[in-house]
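Module 6 notes. Inverse folding takes a fixed backbone as the condition and produces residue identities as the prediction. Think of it as a translation problem where the source language is geometry and the target language is the twenty amino acids. Below is one complete input and output pair. Work through it position by position during the lab.
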């Protein structure tokens, strides 16, 4: 759907709508130019990236890479190498984000390069499955740790799910009320989790100085020599870095995006890489590699041995980490819904902005409601596993979009222009990460996931292309009820 279609959708709404306040009994007039407020600076941008990437995994069980590589030395190389690959992706997205200064991340870039169908399919998968299920899983992990502090709650299924639902609703309220408040929450919780990981890193350095270096002597002994196994180890580590692209979802809300977007992308990924490598080193100063492989809560074991009675700090840190990660996912995930609605790929209502708070309230509520539904799915983890490869399918397609626009937009001045070898390398890695899990362990569920992706076309043609169903009355009702208005049209790329 092109820009003229979008403008046509906007023209069906009143430019000025009066809302009657329940307390003041005074009307509020919506300004014609209602748009999202630029409230994300460099610090909050870095916090969004770091806080979303670092969830509960680095605290609980960072053993997959060690298990596949077979040695401490090679596992650390893989952790560092995966950070380099994530950095390559950040550089690609920095060029894209400064070239196409629109929110929505991959959706905006696929739309610009290849048109509405690839962009819609990305929105279809991201909005319905990937983002909401990620929020649900993170909040369920948060809930499990909350219930661990209250033994009298027992282990029933209902209490953790209620806590997870409460966490989602709380995040929905915070993100709906204020962009600045959501950004502050992200900064606070990112600082808290980095402080906890800082304890492990500093503790590891101190123990190294004390001579606890046995795990790093002849550290490459036993390393696997299988290229495919090493590649799969990279595959596992790269998932731990997922979230490096989240700032591009909120480009229109970044202060001075031409400067802060690339700076935050690079600083965020570099910081996470350093934290991941030093944290793994810290763990191995207090336990053997076999103990790390056998433990399901590595940080807790490290705390028991090093911090003794103060070990309770680390379970609390997991609570901060998961809640902050969920906040970042809600903050960025709602923007995909917002930009897709603005282009007519989703109901127009989802692109509306609250007239006073200047937040994309309908898109945030929509995303969180689907996440609440996801909490009730028993095999949600399996669902995400089989849709994960589609994320790298779209990452690769977006890298291809960058290469394609090097040709179609070669005369456009670029604020950042990275060496062309970087998107090529990233594209090749993405192709491998799509193909590898299918070739290594082919399962029928991958076919089901692929059918679901392509099945989005069943909705695209009647609802988006031909616009056969009109919901103007419903849209007008919710516009008045929620005090929202059409947002300012997308910025020019």
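Target side of the pair, the amino acids:
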């Amino acid at each position: 759907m092109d820009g003229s279609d979008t403008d046509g959708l906007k023209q069906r709404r009143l430019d000025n709508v009066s809302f009657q306040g329940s307390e003041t009994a005074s009307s509020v007039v919506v300004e014609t130019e209602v748009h999202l407020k630029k409230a994300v600076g460099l610090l909050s941008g870095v916090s969004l990236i770091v806080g979303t990437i670092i969830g509960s995994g680095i605290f609980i069980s960072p053993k997959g890479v060690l298990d596949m590589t077979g040695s401490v030395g090679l596992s650390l190389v893989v952790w560092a190498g995966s950070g380099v690959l994530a950095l390559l992706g950040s550089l690609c997205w920095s060029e894209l984000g400064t070239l196409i200064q629109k929110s929505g991340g991959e959706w905006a870039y696929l739309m610009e390069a290849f048109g509405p169908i690839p962009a819609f399919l990305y929105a279809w998968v991201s909005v319905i499955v990937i983002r909401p299920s990620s929020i649900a899983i993170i909040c369920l992990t948060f809930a499990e740790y909350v219930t661990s502090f209250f033994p009298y709650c027992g282990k029933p299924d209902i209490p953790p799910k209620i806590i997870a639902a409460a966490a989602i609703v709380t995040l929905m309220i915070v993100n709906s009320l204020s962009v600045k408040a959501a950004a502050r929450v992200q900064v606070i919780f990112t600082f808290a989790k980095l402080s906890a990981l800082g304890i492990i890193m500093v503790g590891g350095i101190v123990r190294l100085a004390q001579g606890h270096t046995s795990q790093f002597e002849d550290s490459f002994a036993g390393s696997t020599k299988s290229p495919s196994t090493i590649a799969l180890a990279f595959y596992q580590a790269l998932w731990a870095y997922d979230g490096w692209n989240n700032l591009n979802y909120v480009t229109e809300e970044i202060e001075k995006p031409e400067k802060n977007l690339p700076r935050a992308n690079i600083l965020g990924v570099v910081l996470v890489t350093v934290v991941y490598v030093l944290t793994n080193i810290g763990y191995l100063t207090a336990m053997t590699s076999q103990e790390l492989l056998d433990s399901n809560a590595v940080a807790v074991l490290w705390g028991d041995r090093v911090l003794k009675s103060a070990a309770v700090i680390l379970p609390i840190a997991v609570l901060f980490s998961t809640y902050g990660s969920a906040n970042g996912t809600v903050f960025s995930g709602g923007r995909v819904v917002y930009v897709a609605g603005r282009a007519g790929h989703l109901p127009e209502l989802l692109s509306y902005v609250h007239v006073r708070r200047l937040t994309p309230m309908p898109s945030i509520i929509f995303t969180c409601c689907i996440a609440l539904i996801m909490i009730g799915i028993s095999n949600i983890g399996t669902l995400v596993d089989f849709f994960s490869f589609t994320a790298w399918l779209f990452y690769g397609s977006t890298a291809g979009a960058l290469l394609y626009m090097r040709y179609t937009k070669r005369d456009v001045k670029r604020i950042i222009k990275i060496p062309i070898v970087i998107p090529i390398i990233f594209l090749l890695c993405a192709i491998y990460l799509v193909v590898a899990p299918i070739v290594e362990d082919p399962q029928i569920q991958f076919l089901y996931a692929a059918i679901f992706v392509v099945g989005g076309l069943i909705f695209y043609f009647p609802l988006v292309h031909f616009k056969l169903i009109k919901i103007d009355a419903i849209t007008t009702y919710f516009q008045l009820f929620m005090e929202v208005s059409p947002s300012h049209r997308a910025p020019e790329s």
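Reference fact for the lab report: The longest strand covers residues 18-20.
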